[in-house]
């Protein structure tokens, strides 16, 4: 859905560098979800955030990955010390969210393709 | 964890043919969803199913929520070139959306 804006569309990093992926939800949406997609696979849930709160991070790797959704500004998915296995498409989705979960009204962005050299 | 098995993994059909794909799960879901993803884009919701046994249409697309709540199918009638893409089923239980592996649809004109 054109309303969810992700940038950059493509990000190339060398092993050990940091990757920052940004997501601006649909205007008025206060719920953000991050998913990861490996080639030829479906989307895997990573984290669910509301403004200034992490609601469910059960899909996030325990190390090197973090996410935030501040009061002002976009949601950020941060990957520290990237490794080749982090190469994937990362999708952000937002919903108006009248309660958890309301995933059926998810609007997805176009994704960020992360390539780790 | 919850897993969805989607089949077939890929389909090669002639324009005008009907398409059928399905999704099964070892777990019960409260909602079944079907998405389409085109290259370089995020998934777009096609159909949402909320009740066991529910049959819902969206133009040439028809989807059903299985009685056991562990399966769903999607049919596309009279396929056209713009139907090309990857179709994903997704189930929603008590927690987050769980996606199938996708069915890649290729159409020969």
Describe the structure.
The complex is a heterodimer of chains A (117) and B (109). Chain A has 117 residues and is mostly beta strands. Chain A is built from no helices and eleven strands. In chain A, strands 2, 4, 5, 6, 9, 10 and 11 form a seven-stranded mixed β-sheet that branches. With 109 residues, chain B is mainly beta. Chain B has no helices and eleven strands. The mean pLDDT of chain B is 91. Classes of the chains: A mainly beta (117), B mainly beta (109). At the A-B interface, strand 5 of A face strand 5, strand 9 and strand 10 of B.
What key phrases describe this protein's structure?
heterodimer, A: 117 residues, mainly beta, seven-stranded mixed β-sheet, four-stranded antiparallel β-sheet, globular, B: 109 residues, six-stranded mixed β-sheet, five-stranded antiparallel β-sheet, 11 strands, 56% strand
Strand content of chain B: over 45%
Distance between the termini of chain A: 30 Å
Helix content of chain A: under 10%
SS elements, strand count of chain A: 11
Structural class call of chain B reads mainly beta
Concise summary:
The complex is a heterodimer of chains A (117) and B (109). Chain A has no helices and eleven strands.
């Amino acid at each position: 859905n054109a309303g969810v804006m992700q940038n950059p569309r493509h990000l190339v990093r060398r092993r050990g560098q940091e990757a920052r992926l940004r997501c601006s939800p649909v205007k008025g949406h206060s719920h953000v979800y991050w998913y990861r997609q490996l080639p030829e696979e479906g989307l895997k849930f990573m984290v669910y955030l509301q403004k200034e709160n992490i609601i469910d991070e059960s899909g996030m790797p325990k190390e090197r990955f973090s996410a935030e959704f501040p009061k002002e500004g976009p949601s950020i998915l941060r990957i520290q010390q990237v490794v080749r296995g982090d190469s994937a498409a990362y999708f952000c989705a937002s919903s108006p969210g009248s309660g958890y979960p309301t995933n059926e009204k998810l609007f997805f962005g176009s994704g960020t393709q992360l390539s780790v050299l | 964890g919850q897993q969805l098995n989607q089949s077939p993994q890929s389909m090669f059909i002639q324009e005008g043919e009907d398409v059928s794909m399905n999704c099964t799960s070892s777990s019960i879901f409260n909602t079944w969803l079907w998405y389409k993803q085109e290259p370089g884009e995020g998934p777009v919701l096609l159909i949402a199913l909320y009740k066991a046994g529910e049959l819902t249409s969206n133009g040439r697309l028809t989807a059903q929520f299985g009685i056991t709540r562990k399966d769903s199918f999607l049919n596309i009638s009279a396929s056209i070139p713009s139907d090309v893409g990857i179709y994903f089923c997704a189930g929603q239980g008590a927690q987050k959306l769980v996606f199938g592996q996708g069915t890649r649809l290729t159409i020969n004109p």
